[in-house]
Amino acid sequence: MCILLPACRSNVTRFEVIDYSPSADPVHYFQEFDECYYRVDGEGNIDIVARRRGGPTNRLDEGPVQVVHIRTIYQSVPGQTPVERTMTNATVSYIIMDHGAGVSFDGAGFLLCTIHRNGRELTATLEESTLRPMRRLGAGAPQVFERPRVTGRIYAQLDPRRTLRILNETRHLLRPMADATAHRRYGAGSYGEIE
Fold first, then answer.
1. What is the dotted CATH code of the domain comprising 2-186?
2. Where are the domains of the chain?
3. Number of other residues whose CB lies within 10 A of the CB of residue 187
4. Are 114 and 122 in contact (CB under 8 A)?
């Protein structure tokens, strides 16, 4: 759900990942992102892209690089449509790449966002989203997380051109996982459920 309201702003995009391993205690990770952009498509859906580069290069295949892509899939109408945190209204991808190898954890979550009156800034909260490994780059793609759940606070600038460029670069590099590892480990059609 996105609404147009004045609000207090924080200029930092930060995500928390809690990795739930079946054989160990949950592990918490926190990461701030250097860049965060958004665009609104012709149907009113919002793409948000956050990127953090660990090296001096701008290339996604020369890491380390982390990219988070959130796309709204449902728009509620303020005052008319009920909204709660257990809903799913966005797809979420958390991508980690380093020197020609990488993996994308994909799933869904709930995004509550505000496009500010100037139309050039967006602030949002990503409620708990559950992801699983779905795409990879290179044969040696690391298994960074087992069962990640991601939350975050987002500050994004309107920049459709940069948003699309990062999305296109990422889509070009990552391909669906060829084997059925994700389905065997997590169960087909489920997020984080072990069969």
1. 2.40.128
2. 2-186
3. 14
4. yes
Spatial distance between the Cα atoms of 195 and 182, rounded to a whole number of angstroms = 11
The alpha-helical segments, DSSP class H, found in the chain are 160-173, 181-186
* DSSP reduced 3-state for 6: coil
Instruction: Give the number of other CB atoms < 10 A from CB of residue 98.
Output: 20
Asked if residue 131 has pLDDT above 60, the reply is yes
Q: Could you identify the residue written with the tokens 């600038």?
A: 157
Beta bridge partners, 33, equal 13
pLDDT for 53:
84
Q: What distances in angstroms separate CA 12 from CA 2, 21, 37, one per listed residue? A: 19, 29, 12
Contact 51, 67 (CB under 8 A): yes
Q: What pTM, to 2 d.p., does this model score?
A: 0.80
pLDDT tens string 50-63: 999 876 555 555 56
> Is residue 97's pLDDT more than 60?
yes
